[in-house]
Amino acid sequence: MVELLPLMSVDPQSVEDLLDAAFGPDRFGRTAYRIRQGLTPVNELSFALQGDDGLIGVIQCWPVAHFGADNVATPLVMVGPVAVRPDIQRGGHGRALMDKMVESARQFADGALMMIGDPEYYGRFWGFDADATGAWDLPGPFEQRRLLGLAVNGHNLPRTAGMIGPRRAPSA
Ligand SMILES: CC(C)(COP(=O)(O)OP(=O)(O)OC[C@H]1O[C@@H](n2cnc3c(N)ncnc32)[C@H](O)[C@@H]1OP(=O)(O)O)[C@@H](O)C(=O)NCCC(=O)NCCS
């Protein structure tokens, strides 16, 4: 039996083990990790697929922002990693996790979605594209065609130049 659960209900070490298996242990050097360093996942948009013999896949989302001219911040939700256990990839599990996340984001997200990923996958099934992100910058190397966005829950994507980074706590 396969169960879709809130990510916070599964053992954090099993999540790390699955991410190592899907991305390799050098995953921490990726640009995506630099953006979300030190952040806590968004609970309502982060999920796990649990099978009889352990974790099958995970999706995590993060509270980030686009910092434009004059440092004006537009809240965004960063999607990823999306990861499925390597021996059972291409069996619909990635789609199940993304379907649940996008459905939830349409109700709960407090910013448009952004991610670094393959447009051939995330565009085909959920409509992510790189149309709005041409002037965006990230704190590390990236391919512009893989910097994707999706407007949800009334939140549009900024199209202006800006740096993507963690949301800052409001000053007291
Ligand atoms: C990417 C990933 C999450 C997809 O999940 P999955 O369960 O393997 O894939 P699904 O079964 O949902 O895929 C369904 C379809 O998408 C296609 N697809 C899967 N990954 C794709 C990719 N990266 N690019 C293009 N198409 C892809 C499949 O071929 C399949 O197509 P079909 O229905 O025409 O046969 C998974 O393969 C994975 O963990 N990969 C390694 C980690 C990674 O790269 N994560 C994404 C970056 S955040």
Summarize the entry for a quick read.
With 172 residues, this protein is an alpha+beta fold. The chain has helices at residues 12-23, 31-36, 93-108, 119-126; strands at 3-6, 47-51, 54-67, 73-84, 112-116, 136-137, 147-150, 162-166.
Describe the protein in words.
With 172 residues, the protein is of the alpha+beta class. The chain has a single domain (3-166), classed as Aminopeptidase (3-Layer(aba) Sandwich), CATH 3.40.630. It contains four helices and eight strands. Strands 1, 2, 3, 4, 5, 6, 7 and 8 form an eight-stranded mixed beta sheet that branches. A hairpin with a 5-residue loop joins strand 3 and strand 4. The radius of gyration is 16 Å and the shape is globular. Coenzyme A is lined by residues 22-23, 80-84, 89-95, 117-118, 120-121.
Write out key terms for the chains shown.
172 residues, alpha+beta, Aminopeptidase, eight-stranded mixed β-sheet, 4 helices, binds coenzyme A
How many strands?
A: 8
Number of helices: 4
Distance between the termini: 48 Å
List the secondary-structure elements in sequence, H or E: EHHEEEHEHEEE
Determine the CATH topology: Aminopeptidase
Residue windows where pLDDT falls under 50 for at least 5 positions = none
CATH level 1 name: Alpha Beta
**CATH superfamily, called what?**
Gcn5-related N-acetyltransferase (GNAT)
Name the CATH architecture: 3-Layer(aba) Sandwich
Report the sheet-strand fraction: 25-35%
Note the main sheet: 8 strands, mixed
* Approximate helicity band: 10-25%
Write down the overall geometry. Answer: globular
Which hetero ligands occur in this complex? coenzyme A
Q: What do the pLDDT scores average to?
A: 95
Quaternary structure of the protein: single chain
